[in-house]
């Protein structure tokens, strides 16, 4: 067992580098990719499908700086894997891929430690070189694909056809999103500890941060959360579970509508959150809002602290961007509304100023904002 001050032994060989890409199973990959390019500022990266000799799935990859999302749809109605997943979960994140530097050692170690290998090591090759992969099972139906790119020089993955430049959108403001900050997985009640232990045991991740329901609660609902990370702390995977409250928490709502554990939200890091949110709103993105009293209380707390917020508080308030801080620094964050009709996956935009937390001081405001939306859906 690791602790929040002890990472445990450094893995002997095999390093997790960063988030590589996230794969979504959706009903219409072409339209989903178009939505993310139009609303979220991504650009088409590549396509793999019938025209490239891939007969089962259409795959549309989009990119924004270091963030890559891949949307997959099945061509045939009797595709059991895709169809069963879509019927149960709706559109959602199926696979969170990690870039690694020694696939063989990581897979061998994961096997020895009891990981379920969905697909053992395989290779894919085209004119740009070879990429090696392996896939392991994590919580629910979610998987992690491990990606080793040492012998590949292409834009994304073998077999993906570049998208013509005339397909790129022009005239829309840039979203300024840089890389994946963290990916949050929701679990049914009392499943969080076993999932955290799986990351410790099978991937040799360690515990980085946590909160419980005594810290994070509203009048109606509460949560517990443990953040798991690799030894170098370049990949953060918060694991959430609901806690008992007067009414249904947004974690429980997610689990019920998703049909079990899965990726609840993806946090995208930016170095300029004000420009990012101004431009994303101009693109038509919808975000959760908090009442102005949040900022009245925040100003009082900041006046009593030694934290200097560089950004204009009036602009942050107008944009409904949340602020959390400690003695070392602060972070700014905001959350989109659900990215599909089911109240499941949403996105977060985050900017960090020497602050490695996850907005615990904002969880109450976030929960209350989500509870307003839950009440509209009749699910509170």
Blueprint of the fold:
Blueprint: E1 16-25, H1 29-40, E2 43-48, E3 57-64, E4 67-74, H2 80-89, E5 92-100, H3 103-112, E6 117-126, E7 129-137, E8 143-152, E9 161-162, E10 179-186, H4 192-203, E11 206-211, E12 222-229, E13 236-243, H5 250-258, E14 262-269, H6 273-282, H7 293-304, H8 313-319, E15 322-325, E16 330-335, E17 346-353, H9 360-377
Parallel strand pairs: 1-4, 5-8, 10-13, 14-17
Antiparallel strand pairs: 1-5, 2-3, 2-9, 3-4, 6-7, 7-8, 10-14, 11-12, 12-13, 15-16, 16-17
Your description of this structure?
The chain has nine helices and 17 strands. It has helices at residues 29-40, 80-89, 103-112, 192-203, 250-258, 273-282, 293-304, 313-319, 360-377; strands at 16-25, 43-48, 57-64, 67-74, 92-100, 117-126, 129-137, 143-152, 161-162, 179-186, 206-211, 222-229, 236-243, 262-269, 322-325, 330-335, 346-353. The strands form two sheets. Strands 6-7-8-5-1-4-3-2-9 form a nine-stranded mixed beta sheet. It has an eight-stranded mixed beta sheet with strand order 11-12-13-10-14-17-16-15, with helices on both faces. The chain is globular. The model has no long low-confidence stretch (mean pLDDT 91).
